Amino acid sequence: MATMRLDKFLKVSRIIKRRTLAKEVADKGRIHINGQQAKASSNVKVGDELTILFGQKKVVVRVEKLQDSTKKEDAGSMFVLLKEERVGEES
Predict the structure, then answer these.
(1) 3-state secondary structure the chain
(2) Would 45 be classed as within a structural domain?
(3) Structure pTM?
(4) CATH number for the domain harbouring residue 54
(5) Does a structural domain hold residue 91?
(6) What gap in Å lies between CA 83 and CA 35, rounded to an integer?
(7) Which residues are bridge partners to 63 per DSSP?
(8) Structural domain for 14, as ranges
(9) How far apart are CA 74 and CA 91, in angstroms?
(10) In this structure, are strands 31-33 and 36-37 parallel, antiparallel, or unpaired?
(11) What is the pLDDT of residues 44-67, one digit of tens each?
């Protein structure tokens, strides 16, 4: 079964626009793969569920396919958005 580095998947799928930013988010412990905390170097495969915390927003996606590169309009087909919710972190 094919796998891809988490930071590369996030960039190619355009969930996070830049790989350096994807690495930063992962290194801060804000990304989980199937409930396990993930690093930028963690591998993702088709069927994995990613939970990503972006500031006040929590996004859950399922990996649908892996591609080394993609056009902007095809990037959305690499994952399915399962849930998007605001995290109640009042400041």
Answers:
(1) CCCEEHHHHHHHCCCCCCHHHHHHHHHCCCEEECCEECCCCCEECCCCEEEEEECCEEEEEEECCCCCCCCHHHHHHHEEEEEEEECCCCC
(2) yes
(3) 0.89
(4) 3.10.290.10
(5) no
(6) 14
(7) 79
(8) 4-86
(9) 37
(10) antiparallel
(11) 999 999 999 998 999 999 999 999
